[in-house]
Amino acid sequence: MPLSANDPSHKSWLDVPANSDFPIQNIPFGVFLTRDDVITIGTRIGDTAIDLGALHQLGYFKGIDLTDDIFLQDSLNDFIADGRKTWRLVRNRVSKIFREGSDTELRNNDDHRDKVLFSLDEIEMQMPVDVGDYTDFYASKEHATNVGSLFRDPENALMPNWLHIPIGYHGRSSSIIPSGTPIHRPIGQSKPGDDGKPGFGPSKLLDFELEMAFITTAANDLGKRVSIDEAEDHIFGLVLFNDWSARDIQAWEYQPLGPFLGKSFASTISPWIVTLDALEPFRAKGPEQEPKPLPYLQQQGKKNFDIHLQAIIQPENGEENIVANSNFKYMYWSMAQQLAHHTINGCNVRSGDMMGSGTISGPTKDSYGSMLELTWRGQNPLKLSDGSERKFIEDGDTVILRGHAEKDGVRIGFGDCSGKILPAH
Description:
- This protein is of the alpha+beta class.
- It contains eight helices and 27 strands.
- The strands form seven sheets. Strands 6, 7, 8, 13, 14, 16, 17 and 22 form an eight-stranded mixed beta sheet that branches. Strands 9, 20, 21, 25, 26 and 27 form a six-stranded mixed beta sheet that branches. A five-stranded antiparallel beta sheet has the order 4-3-2-1-5.
- A hairpin with an 8-residue loop joins strand 10 (about 185-190) and strand 11.
- It starts with about 30 loop residues before the first strand and ends with a strand.
């Protein structure tokens, strides 16, 4: 099915500000609360939110096989489960309706427009999916190398398995929250001091992790596998992802079974899911993989995506400070490889499941995706524009992640992924 919605020449009759993350070529999907306190599934063009439930009820999706209530739900799970054919039909239809020169009734019908269109200050974004299961990978070679150098041996920074399998762990889905939700500093145990007793209290080494996450459809039944060649057919889209980390809590607990309370207190996502189809023009070649992966992980073509990423710290009542510039194309293990590996043992992946990339670090110091790396475990504090310094994240700080891809005059972005840290309670 052609991706007509991606045509870079298309303009919308809706107002789209310059450098908007959401031109008509994007058409992301999300869930929001309207001015009438109704939860609906919608999309966004420029600074206008579009109620897809109202659009469907008014007959604008005629000819597409959709259930009457497909957009009248509080999550995208059922829509995602309908599969790529449905996603593309809906996205192409939305593009056609809102394209400059469109002859649809909506443009000139005030009653229809009032039911369908909302300004951003009239809506409240919700979690876009009901995340049944969440897996976090560890798929950036630069990040894994940095962490290995900090905590083990710089000469043997990578664990022996790292170059052979996409490492991951099963995270906590209940604490995944939408952008703008404040987070209280977590409390927990930390490594013993000189007295041999574990510390206890608010985390002193609170960190962000610059990540992306992909959302899946129902990919396989229990006992079946998803092949590397079919993996992308089961990826709906991506969000920005801040997998907050309490480094001191994590350091004391993670052996022998891995991350637990140092990670499960909160993970923040951007609320608009940008489809894999919208990102198709921005494919990029990933790093050379040596040694060559086992056959089930061997892939053909461009499986990475050129998405510029930023991490920003904004002190309370202060200015934004860009502290990292990275890129999703740096990922060593691609999304397709992650999903193929996830199911190789027959593990079933369901609609709305979320897979985090792990911290995305690049080859230069300013492209590291966490404070742990940017300050090298606190040894080299970052100086902010107000003169203050940061080794890790302090109370009152807001961390903002941003990302966009740009080519042929088209910019596809994700909006903000932000969270403010409140004192422990």
